[in-house]
Design brief:
The complex is a heterodimer of chains A (257) and B (261). Chain A is an alpha/beta fold. Chain A has 8 helices and 9 strands. In chain A, strand 7 and strand 8 form a beta hairpin. In chain A, 33% of the residues are buried. Chain B is mainly α and 261 residues long. In chain B, helix 1 crosses helix 5, helix 2 packs antiparallel against helix 3 and helix 6 runs parallel beside helix 10. The chains are: A alpha/beta (257), B mainly alpha (261). Chains A and B meet through helix 1 of A and helix 1 and helix 4 of B.
């Protein structure tokens, strides 16, 4: 009888753990080749699979160095190479971008996006939420071990703004970032009209982050202020579209409920 | 299981054994094993140089090689087959591969037996001539037969102790206490009732050695019947099988939680 989890199941799963442990004394190529053989591949297949994975993570030049001499970023990349080396259908990655420089992050995210586009399932666990802004199709927010919200980022944000928060959470304010040369004056006027719950000036005092309970009224008032106060607005953007912002909103609402 | 599956499992077991053998023999931590293997060679050289007798050769084999190097060497190798990997946080590389846990155990155990038998067998093969050279040691054919018999005992000792220590490494976070308990049983087995002596590994190893150790001159010594070679070999294989079956049972239920270890 075949069970849902059989001995062959791991061949369909690639896993990148957060822990940094490796069998001692191994080179990057040796690690991948040896464990591809443990997967059941013969020597030629294992060599080829290892070379391909190393190339995809741009580790070819250090492949024959011992992993103990690798930098943090290289160790992270060899873990990713191991996770993808057998072309899995499901990738489970625990803090996969830890220690990677921006270039390597972009490389890793492009690689993972490629896997997802090819039909694989990519599950990323991370505390650095902005890493997922352009990558996550769906998110699951956990707070103290409990499910706080799940779904598409835009869907969760809309549900929060519309009072139909996931798990029937109450209504949440929208946050807007406004770039304006006279940001303190703009903040004062918005407070005068009782349209913001809070506003934070940015460090250069040429922008502010405002939270409002009524987005429509806020944007109408902003138009009026531009006209009447002759404020030079350089840009307006929702500040709660990022995964981080949505997560904070979900958590804030959950704790306030 | 068809031929392809069998070949795949064999290949996987071989791959695990190759990784393990390299870790056991060619890593920094192997140094203690080499020291344990070199110990009887150095002492045999010293004993030989100071005028060895045949009883010195017999004692060297039973006390130094079997009682010290093989016992502690196997404890070091086999209790760490899985425990060391849990501490180094690298066991997931094996557990996440599509390999049966029994095949994983077989690969690691065989590598352990190969490494231990190679090191301590080599130590025996080098130590004997060093002891024999001063007093001749009899005809060359006799020497070779004696060495061959004792090398066979070393291999069986590695296999039997190995299975027990593998089990200890899987059952206990700190296997020092069960290893010490087994050491106590092995060292003091001669004062135990015959039925309990039969539970010790050394009881069977003694029966297979080319020359049995001299009887212990103790008031409390209990004479137990010496098993025939066939019974001794079968008993050692049974101990090995028991240890491996129990290890396989434990390994199938093993769940990794590095933070707990």
């Amino acid at each position: 009888m075949r069970t849902a989890w059989s001995a062959s199941s791991p061949s369909r799963i690639g896993y990148c753990p957060q822990v940094d442990g490796f069998p001692p004394g191994m080179t990057g190529r040796g690690l991948l080749t040896a464990f591809l053989k443990v997967h059941g591949l013969d020597a030629a297949e294992a060599d080829e699979g290892a070379a391909t994975a190393l190339e995809r993570l741009q580790l070819g030049s250090v492949a024959d160095r011992r992993i103990a001499t690798y930098s943090k970023g290289m160790r992270q990349r060899i873990k990713l190479a191991w996770a993808i080396s057998h072309e899995p259908e499901v990738l489970i990655l625990d803090e996969p971008l830890n220690g990677l420089d921006p270039e390597a992050r972009a490389l890793a995210m492009a690689l993972l996006r490629g896997f997802a586009d090819a039909g694989a399932h990519v599950l990323i666990s991370t505390h650095i939420l902005h890493e997922l802004d352009d990558a996550a199709d769906r998110v699951v927010f956990l707070d103290a071990g409990y499910l706080a919200a799940a779904g598409e980022v835009a869907g969760i944000r809309d549900a929060l703004a519309g009072g139909q928060a996931p798990d029937a959470q109450p209504r949440q304010a929208m946050q807007v970032r406004v770039r304006c040369q006279d940001a303190p004056k703009l903040a004062a006027r918005l407070f005068d009209q009782d349209l913001v719950r809070f506003a934070t000036l940015e460090e250069d005092r040429a922008g502010l982050l405002a939270a409002t309970d009524d987005a429509d009224a806020f944007f109408l008032a902003l138009n009026d202020l531009v006209r009447t106060e002759r404020l030079a607005i350089e840009g307006v953007e929702p500040a709660d579209e990022s995964v981080q912002a949505v997560f904070e909103a979900v958590i804030e609402q959950g704790r306030g409920a | 299981m068809n031929g392809r599956t069998a070949a795949r499992r064999l290949r996987q077991t071989g791959a695990v054994a190759a990784i393990e053998l390299r870790r056991l023999l060619a890593s920094k931590r192997s140094a203690s094993l080499y020291v344990l293997a070199a110990l009887p060679v150095v002492l045999a050289g010293l004993i030989g140089a100071s005028g060895a007798t045949d009883s010195a050769a017999v004692n060297t084999f039973h006390k130094l090689i079997l009682g010290t190097s093989v016992f502690f060497g196997c404890a070091l190798v086999f209790t760490n087959l899985f425990r060391r990997e849990i501490l180094e946080q690298s066991l997931h590389f094996f557990l996440l591969a599509p390999i049966r846990r029994e095949a994983l155990l077989a690969g690691k155990y065989l590598a352990g037996v190969a490494a231990a038998a190679m090191l301590f067998g080599a130590a025996t093969a080098i130590a004997y001539p060093l002891l024999w050279l001063p007093f001749g040691g009899g005809a060359p054919f006799d020497q070779a037969a004696r060495l061959g018999a004792d090398l066979f005992v070393v291999v069986l000792a590695c296999a039997a102790y190995g299975a027990l220590f593998t089990l200890f490494g899987l059952l206990f976070r700190n296997p020092t206490l069960p290893v010490a308990a087994l050491l106590g049983l092995e060292v003091m087995h001669f004062v135990l009732p015959p039925a309990l002596q039969a539970a010790s590994v050394v009881h069977y190893l003694k029966a297979l050695a080319s020359v049995p150790p001299p009887p212990v001159g103790s008031l409390f010594a209990v004479l137990a019947p010496v098993p025939t070679p066939g019974v001794a070999v079968a008993s050692l294989l049974a101990i090995m099988a028991l240890g491996l079956v129990a290890s396989g049972w434990r390994l199938r239920r093993l769940q990794l939680a590095y933070s707990d270890d």
